[in-house]
Fold each of these.
Amino acid sequence: AQSVTQLDSQVPVFEEAPVELRCNYSSSVSVYLFWYVQYPNQGLQLLLKYLSGSTLVESINGFEAEFNKSQTSFHLRKPSVHISDTAEYFCAVTPLAETSGSRLTFGEGTQLTVNP
Amino acid sequence: EAGVTQFPSHSVIEKGQTVTLRCDPISGHDNLYWYRRVMGKEIKFLLHFVKESKQDESGMPNNRFLAERTGGTYSTLKVQPAELEDSGVYFCASSQWANGPYGYTFGSGTRLTVV
């Protein structure tokens, strides 16, 4: 079984400030890792994912996350946030062994609020 | 292509009543999933269909919940009778068979409030 812990439920920051949303996971098997984002009144959207290869993955809107196997972490970062980044962010994992149609295990979410 | 559609977007019902949520996946997506988020907690898996068959329903909380996917197209999730603790946001997602979690597309969710 897997579990995901998002260490901060609320993260308020000012516009153009850097931000880090923390995610730690626990699993007895290797996992794939994901960050999803939910903007107000919208569905969950995949932000970025780590499947294999380089441990640093990037999204098209400036977010990046680094997979750290020894620390079982997958923290999400952005060097300079915008008002439009205000949303709830979810970290999720799924085991490698079940690559077709497998379930995701989510964290409790982190509400990022960017203030002017 | 059209996304995953869920309706209603909101539903408020009284305890003891029945509610049916519907999910229309992306056309051609064999995999359909239901997830639920209760009271700001984590999003939890409920079940997984492959076409019309239930692949995994281990996340269904109890027998008051019934999910169907007739003909392998849209799916319904019925709660009967609804209890207060069933309140939350119900998400549906779909993916093509080969993609698995790589290609999940989520709907906007149905917010269910049981009063």
Note: Chain B touches chain A through 30 residues (CB under 8 Å).
Amino acid sequence: NAGVMQNPRHLVRRRGQEARLRCSPMKGHSHVYWYRQLPEEGLKFMVYLQKENIIDESGMPKERFSAEFPKEGPSILRIQQVVRGDSAAYFCASSPRAGELQETQYFGPGTRLLVL
Amino acid sequence: GNSVTQMEGPVTLSEEAFLTINCTYTATGYPSLFWYVQYPGEGLQLLLKATKADDKGSNKGFEATYRKETTSFHLEKGSVQVSDSAVYFCALRGGSSASKIIFGSGTRLSIRP
């Protein structure tokens, strides 16, 4: 059973470009979470999605950032008009369901975004 | 709101030394508590977890006990190895934070041969 997959693993963008980060959850998992890790810091929650629904986006910046998890295909985190402060590692996690405290989230290897 | 505070690093120990990384939390309700480990250049791996008071999570020689009276979840290992060098994150989920995980800032551990 493959784990959570993220691609690309490394992404370099120039200021003003768009960044698209993809996450394929573990097989059988329908809940996806995105976290951001700034250098030398812990992970900060960004958004929680189920198929075709955004459940909690309380950690998403109000502008330039969006996320989706379509019926088919991976979840996408999209950053428009990137700035240097967006440079970070972006981690995706998945779980089979939510609403149960015991449910573990499994993390992908992350996408390291560098904005020049 | 919910939060996690953990011991600042870096922590440097010799091989076979005893390890403690302190972690305390603030939460409403009854959260689940976790320790995650991040090896260089990799994602997070779940190391252990505990879901209710007095539960002890354990894995790979690491242990942590959910202490509600002191709101703590300290990570311990009796004899560390060079391969344990990594960043360790204490985290909680549940209570008022619902589905999202709240992470501590991480503790970098380096083990000398």
Note: The CA atoms of residues 11 and 40 of chain A lie 19 Å apart.
